[in-house]
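ok, trying the design again with the full structure, not the truncated one.
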């Protein structure tokens, strides 16, 4: 049986300790970002959008009545826009992904819904032209984080 010098054994133990410490640090960093149980942050929707849209208000809101129930309820906000007509925007933040909620939400007249990451946006309008609502919806999509 070969005997290793004490210095070599100490060096191996130091490397194992360093590797274990690096692994534990990486695991903690991943879990703090991916395993968090916190609610989605309030989205930063644009205050104004060309041509002529202005946000009148944005406040916390109950989830819309036709939003499907999927486990933990999302946190929601309601924004009202005026300019080329009246538009109501509900944005609901989920803890993981809004994809399933978008898929299960029923279609409605004068309404478009889309998800981006953990956010589901429901845009409802009255008496608004196609080009005006398209511009607003595009700006809302770009404003939500991935």
């Amino acid at each position: 049986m070969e005997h290793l010098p004490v210095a070599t054994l100490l060096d191996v133990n130091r490397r194992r300790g360093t590797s274990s410490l690096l692994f534990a640090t990486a695991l903690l960093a991943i879990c703090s970002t991916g395993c968090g149980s916190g609610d989605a942050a309030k989205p930063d929707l644009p205050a104004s959008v060309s041509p002529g849209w202005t946000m009148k208000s944005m406040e916390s809101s109950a989830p819309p009545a036709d939003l499907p129930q999927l486990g933990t309820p999302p946190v929601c906000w309601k924004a009202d826009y005026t300019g080329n007509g009246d538009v109501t925007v509900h944005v609901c933040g989920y803890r993981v992904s809004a994809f399933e909620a978008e898929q299960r939400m029923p279609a409605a007249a004068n309404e478009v819904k889309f998800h981006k990451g953990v956010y589901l946006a429901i845009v409802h309008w009255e008496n608004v032209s196609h080009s005006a609502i398209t511009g607003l919806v595009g700006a809302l999509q770009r404003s939500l984080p991935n």
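Keeping the full-length input from now on. The radius of gyration is 24 Å.
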